[in-house]
Amino acid sequence: ISSHFFDYCWHLWQSDVPRILQGFSELHNFSSNISDQHHNELYLTCERWYLCLKIIRQLTISGHQSDSKSMQEVRHVKDVSPVLLSAIQSILPYYSSFHERHPKLWEFIKRACTKMIKVLIAFLARHPYSFGDKSVLVPVMDFCLNKITNPEAELVSFEQFSIQCMVLVKSTLECKEYCPSLTGRVVDENALTLEERRKNMSSTIAGTLASLFPNDRVVLLCNVLVRRYFVLSASDLEGWTQNPEGFHHEQDMVQWTEKLRPCAEALYIVLFHQYTHLLGPVVVSILQEAMNSCPTSVTEITAGLLLKDAAYGAAAYVYYELSNYLSFTDWFNGALSLELTNDHPNMRIIHRKVALILGQWVSEIKDDTKRAVYCAGIKLLQDRDLAVRLAACRTLCLLIEDSNFSEKDFTDLLPVCWDLCFKLVEEVLEFDSKVQVLNLISVLLGHIGQVIPYADKLVLFFQKVWEESSGESLLQMQLLFALRNFVMALGYQSPICYTILLPILQRGIDVNGPDELNLLEDSMLLWEATLAYAPSMVPQLLDFFPSLVHIIERSFDHLTVAVEIVEDYIILGGTEFLRRHASNVAQLLDMIVGNVNDRGLLSVLPVIDILVQVHIT
Question: Is the confidence at residue 283, as pLDDT, over 80?
Fold first, then answer.
C-alpha cells in the first residue's frame, strides 16, 4: 500500500517543483504584471506540494521497517533526499526577495525550506544506513555545514533554517549507527552475518564522515559556533534589560531546538566530545584571546566583552574534557575571582557566566579554593541583576550538593545566604524563579546541619510562601519537599514548626481536597518524616490517621510510604494510638491483605510483627 501511495505523491510532488520555481521566477522578474488569480493559483500549488511532502515523509518513515533493524536499504531515502536538497537550494534564494513584496509566499518559503530539512532529519533518525550512503550524506552535510559556517547575508535572519541545519549536523555526529560497533560475536551464524554487515556499513559511513570533517573544517566550525552564534545580540541585551527573569529562564530552560544560540551550544558540545584532542587547545586559545582583549576592568559593552562572555560559556559547557587543558584553580585566581570585583552594571553579562562556570566546574574545585568559590557564589547571589542572582541559585545548589562539599567552609556564610534567599523570593515574580529559589533552600536544609538558629525565620518564610502559593500546585510541591528537609534538619526539635507544618499537612493528605492529585505523594512523604522525627505523639497527628484509610481505599499507589506511616504511628503512639485507632489499623490490613501482590504483602509483615510485639509487652 505504501509503495502505491508513494509513487503517486512523489510524482505529483516532483511535477509541482518546476511549476513553483517558474512561478517564483515570474514573480521575481515581472511582479507588477502578474494577476491576482495567477498569484492565488501558484499559492494553491505550493500548498498541494507541501501536503505531498508531508505524505512522502510519513510513507518513508512509517512504510518501512527501520533499516538499522532490517539491514535492508530503503530506496526511497536515496531517491528523495538528493531531490529535496536540490529543491531547498532552488527555493532558498527567493527568501530575501519575497519578504517585502510577497509576504504570503515568503511565509511559505520559510515553512517549506524548514520542513524539507526536518524531513531529512527524520530520514536520518529512522533509516540511518540508507541516509549514510555517499550520494545522500555527503551533499546534505556539505550543504548544512556551509550554511552554518558561511551563510549568505540575506539568510542570517532565517534562524529556523539555521537551527535545523545544526540539528541535522548534531544528529549525524551523534548517530550511534555511525560509530564502530563494540558488540561481541554472536554464536548464531545468521546473527553473526547480520552483525558483520552492520559493522561494515558503520565503518564505511564513519570513513565518509571522516572525509567530511577534516581537522581544518572542525576547527572552523568550532570557531564559528563560539565567535558568532554564542555571542549575545543587541536584541538579547535589550530583552535582558527589560526583563531579567524572563531572559534567565529563556536562556536556561528553553528547548535547544527552539532557539539558535542553545542549538549552537548543543552542537558545540557534541562536536567537542567527538574531537576533544583537536578542540581542547583551540577553545583554550579562544578563551585566552578573549581574556587578553577584555581585561576585568572593562565597563563598556564591547565586542571584546561579548566575545569573553561567549568564550566563558564555551569553557563552561565542556568542563569535563577541558579540565585536561585548563587548570580551574589558576583560572579562578587569575581571572574569574577578579571579574567579581568589578561591580559595574554591564558586568552582569560576565558575572552570569562566572556563575555558570563555578557550578559546571564543581568537580575541579580543590580544597584550598573551596572557601573562595563559596564566597564568590554568595557575592553573585548579592548581584543587582536578577538574572545573575537566579544563576547563582543554581550554582550554589551544585556547590552544596557536591559530594566533596565542605560545610565548615560554608557555615559562617549561612546567615547571609538565608537572608538573600528570603529576599530573592520576595523580589521575583515568575513561578519558575520562585521554584528555583525554593530548590536552593531545600538543598541548604538537606545538606547543612546548623538549622536551629534560623528556624524562626524559616517558619515565617514557609508560612508566607505557602499562603501566597494558593493555586500553584507545582510551587506547593516544591514547598512540601523543602518542608520535609526542614523537619529532617530540625530532628527531634521539629515541633517548633508544627504551627505551620500541621495545617499544611492536613490539607495535603485530604483525598477530597482540590489539589489531591498533585500534592498527595509529597504530603505523605512529609507525613512520614514528621512522625519519624517527632519526639512524642501530639493530638493533631493522632487525628490525621483516618486519612490514611481513605487514601488506601482510593488506591495502593502509595502503599510503601503508607506502611511506614503505620509503623511510625504504632511505635510513637503505642497503646494510646491502638486504643483509639485499632479498628482503623484492622481495616487497613484487611484492605491490603488479599488485594496486593506478594511484594505488597511482604511490605505489610513488619507492621504485623510490631503489633504482635506491642501486644506481648
Answer: yes
DSSP 470-500: TT-HHHHHHHHHHHHHHHHHHGGGGGGGHHH
**Whether 579 contacts 589, CB under 8 Å:** no
CA distances for 412 relative to 239, 283, 371, 398, 454, angstroms: 37, 37, 11, 19, 13
Burial of 542 (0-12, 13-18, 19+ CB in 10 A): middle
Amino acid at site 56: I
The conformational region for residue 366 under phi > 0 = left, psi -120 to 50 = alpha, else beta, is beta
Q: Residue 148 corresponds to which cell in the numbers above?
A: 552554518
Q: How far is CA 160 from CA 91, 109, 163, in A?
A: 15, 12, 5
Element (H, E) at 101: helix 94-101
> pLDDT (tens digit, 9 = 90+) per residue, 314-326?
999 999 899 999 9
* CA angle, residues 67, 73, 75, in degrees to nearest 5: 120
Going by C-alpha positions, the residue among 214, 222, 220 that lies closest to residue 315 is 222
> In the chain, what is the straight-line distance between the N-terminal and C-terminal CA atoms, in Å?
76
CB atoms under 10 Å from CB of 156, counted, come to: 10
Q: What is the pLDDT of residue 606?
A: 77
Total residue length of the chain: 617
Q: pTM of the prediction?
A: 0.88
Residues contacting 65, CB < 8 A, separation 6+: 72
What's the sign of the alpha-carbon dihedral 350, 351, 356, 360? positive
User: Which residue type does 121 have?
Assistant: I
Of 147, 13, 139, 164, the closest CA to residue 93 belongs to 147
Q: Determine the residue type at 233.
A: S
> Span 262-269, mean pLDDT?
95
Reading the block at residue 532, the C-alpha cell is 519519624
| Burial of 168: CB neighbours in 10 Å, binned 0-12, 13-18, 19+ | buried
Residue with cell 547543612: 448
Beta strands per DSSP E along 171-280: none
CB 247 within 8 A of CB 239: yes
And the C-alpha cell for 418? 538565608
- The DSSP letter of residue 73 is -
Cα 558 to Cα 524: distance, rounded to the nearest angstrom = 8
At position 227, the amino acid (one-letter code) is R
Nearest 10 degrees: Cα torsion 411, 416, 421, 427: -170
- Main-chain phi, psi angles of 233, to 5 degrees: -90, 170
C-alpha cell at 252: 536556561
